[in-house]
Specification:
The longest helix has 32 residues, at 139-170. It contains 11 helices and 12 strands. It has a 6-stranded mixed β-sheet, covered by helices on one side. Helix 1 packs parallel to helix 2. It has 334 residues and is of the alpha/beta class.
Length: 334
């Protein structure tokens, strides 16, 4: 028995043998993603006998970070409802985005015989999905990043030995601290810093009170921070190793604040828009008093402001403002 569902005309749904087939839009961006989340929740809740849901991506040629967020949300909803979720007829453009973010390992993907691309012909990870923001494809911005990273790494090399000695004398342990963060479209990478906390800081995190709202975590008097670490944070010297992330293309000199995977787990669909650009060593959140930004809504507002106002000259202005901020004793990180 086949039942046509038409409650949401943007997402035609056909139900047959306890399986719902949802036709996905050609452009899967923030507005469509928000609408899809509501439509998919309705499908799972309104059909008690549903055991499987397929999202048909045959006509989808563009997906941004909000679309990625909507798919993750749909997977959670399906798991909560006991429904098996499959991505069906995935186009090459969508497959590139899934492959880049490792979601091709999480989602079950099924291709029909009529689709030329199959699972054996997945795109190379060197390929990139369509850009979500002009800064992604700007060759001049990339040149500025490379030159800036090389200069920054030279400075890092000069300061490496005295910083290493200071860290070891204060609190013996690893020199560097690597943490998984999320880059463009949610792609994960390891961001590096000089260690500014005790060696077992991550294990002690649950003992520290979070003084900010939302997915962010900050404490003005975090007891895990060492004496040398407070100096490194106040002067932003702890962030020097991130020039390596910039050189590798995982970050930019200027961009949005790089979130952790735990943070994006708590995002609503529109908040995924901040991942439409690469994260930066500096940005609006940095020059507007990163220590005083304690609201997640403010972080989102600043990140979206950067995307809306972006230009090469705007990047240069933010770099100059950052240099000025570094000489302000009250500007250090928490």
């Amino acid at each position: 028995m086949m039942i046509a569902k038409s409650e949401n005309p943007d997402y035609p749904v056909t139900v047959s043998d306890q399986t719902a087939m949802v036709v996905m839009p050609a452009m899967f961006t923030v507005n469509q993603a928000v609408s899809f989340k509501q439509a998919f929740q309705s499908v799972c809740q309104d059909i008690p006998s549903l055991t499987q849901a397929k999202l048909d991506f045959r006509q989808t040629t563009f997906i941004d970070s909000s679309g990625i967020g909507a798919l993750i949300s749909a997977l959670r909803t399906a798991q909560q409802q006991g429904v098996q979720l499959k991505l069906f007829n995935v186009s090459s453009q969508v497959m590139m985005a899934l492959s880049m973010t490792d979601l091709d390992k999480i989602f079950e993907i099924e291709q029909s015989t009529g689709i030329v691309q199959d699972l054996k012909a997945r795109p190379s990870r060197d390929q990139q999905p369509h850009p979500t923001h002009p800064s992604i494809t700007s060759p001049t911005k990339r040149v500025i990043d490379i030159v800036g990273a090389l200069v920054g790494l030279t400075i890092t090399g000069v300061l490496l030995i005295p910083i290493a000695i200071a860290i070891q004398m204060d609190d013996p342990g690893p020199l560097f601290f690597g943490q998984v963060r999320c880059s463009w479209m949610g792609k994960r990478f390891k961001m590096w810093k000089f260690r500014s906390m005790v060696a077992n800081a991550e294990a002690l995190k649950h003992q520290v009170e979070n003084q900010v709202s939302g997915p962010l975590f900050k404490n003005a008097n975090d007891p895990r921070i060492t004496r040398v670490g407070r100096f490194l944070r106040r002067t932003s010297l702890d962030e020097l190793p991130q020039f390596l992330n910039v050189l590798k293309g995982e970050m930019s000199l200027v961009g949005t604040r790089p979130p952790t995977p735990d943070e994006i787990e708590m995002y609503e669909i529109p908040q995924w828009q901040r991942l439409d650009v690469k994260p930066g060593m500096t940005g609006e959140w940095q020059v507007n008093g990163r220590s005083s930004v304690t609201s997640f809504e403010d972080v989102i507002r600043l990140d979206l402001k950067y995307q809306q106002n972006w230009s090469l000259w705007y990047d240069i202005q933010l770099i100059l403002k950052t240099i000025a901020v570094l000489f302000n004793k009250k500007s250090g990180a928490m």
